[in-house]
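Incident log, support desk, overnight shift.

02:14 A customer reports that sequence design results differ from what the structure should imply. Their input is reproduced verbatim below. On-call engineer (initials T.W.) acknowledged and began investigating.
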């Protein structure tokens, strides 16, 4: 089956420094893939290349014909100087009818805040509004860059459960960057560990045992993820994703 989106050996340079080096990543239908790695590892740059916001210096990115994507950015600040309601924000630059807005609002539980000013929303409400907007185009692929970074632990848990529900009910694929390693185990089907190149990839419990993952995040994190898998053994279908860095990591 042809991937929805595929990067092959992409490299991105900043001066003499490689932000990404020979990175390959393939996202298929109904995948839920999380990219993890330390700050400055190139995670956001990878997403921008996949979405066409940034052209790699070498390598190729291919997208399925007619691919529809929804994007939730890493940082979004509502400006108090621009008094816009959540409802109006949802339909800016999008031709979305009332039924589509109502569906997305219901899925993300933002119906009660649609008439509030965007700047007045809590962090959790704003993230759900951004997610609702990403869903309006009925995407095949959702791309999320640190979507829960400003939320407390209960808000993070609620947001990840919401993503699981959307995957289950819509059949959409998700490609996400996250620092929430303690929650990645519970929701994602596949983890790609990035540090300018792909260090390792696989199911979360497999990645947690990889020496490259342990070198980046430490023994304590690896043990915590291994224990989580032992206690909460979720059964997922194996996702159709392959990630490699051209150096034998897979």
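02:41 Re-run completed on a clean worker. Output:
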């Amino acid at each position: 089956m042809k991937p929805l989106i595929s990067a092959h050996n992409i490299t991105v340079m900043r001066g003499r420094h490689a932000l990404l080096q020979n990175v390959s990543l393939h996202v298929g239908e109904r995948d839920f893939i999380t990219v993890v790695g330390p700050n400055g590892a190139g995670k956001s740059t990878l997403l921008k290349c996949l979405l066409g916001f940034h052209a790699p210096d070498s390598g190729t990115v291919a997208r399925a014909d007619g691919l529809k994507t929804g994007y939730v950015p890493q940082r979004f600040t509502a400006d108090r100087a621009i008094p816009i309601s959540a409802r109006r924000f949802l339909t800016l630059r999008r031709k979305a009818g009332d039924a589509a807005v109502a569906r997305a609002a219901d899925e993300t539980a933002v119906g009660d805040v649609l008439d509030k000013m965007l700047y007045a929303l809590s962090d959790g409400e704003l993230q759900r509004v951004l997610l609702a907007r990403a869903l309006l185009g009925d995407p095949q692929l959702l791309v999320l860059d640190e979507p829960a970074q400003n939320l407390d632990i209960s808000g993070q848990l609620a947001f990840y459960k919401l993503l699981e529900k959307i995957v289950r009910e819509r059949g959409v694929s998700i490609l996400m960057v996250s620092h929430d390693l303690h929650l990645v185990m519970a929701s994602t089907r596949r983890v790609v560990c990035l540090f300018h190149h792909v260090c390792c990839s696989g199911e979360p419990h497999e990645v947690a045992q990889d020496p490259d993952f342990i070198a980046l995040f430490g023994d304590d994190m690896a043990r915590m993820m291994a224990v989580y898998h032992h206690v909460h053994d979720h059964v997922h279908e194996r996702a159709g994703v392959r990630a490699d860095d051209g150096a034998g990591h897979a």
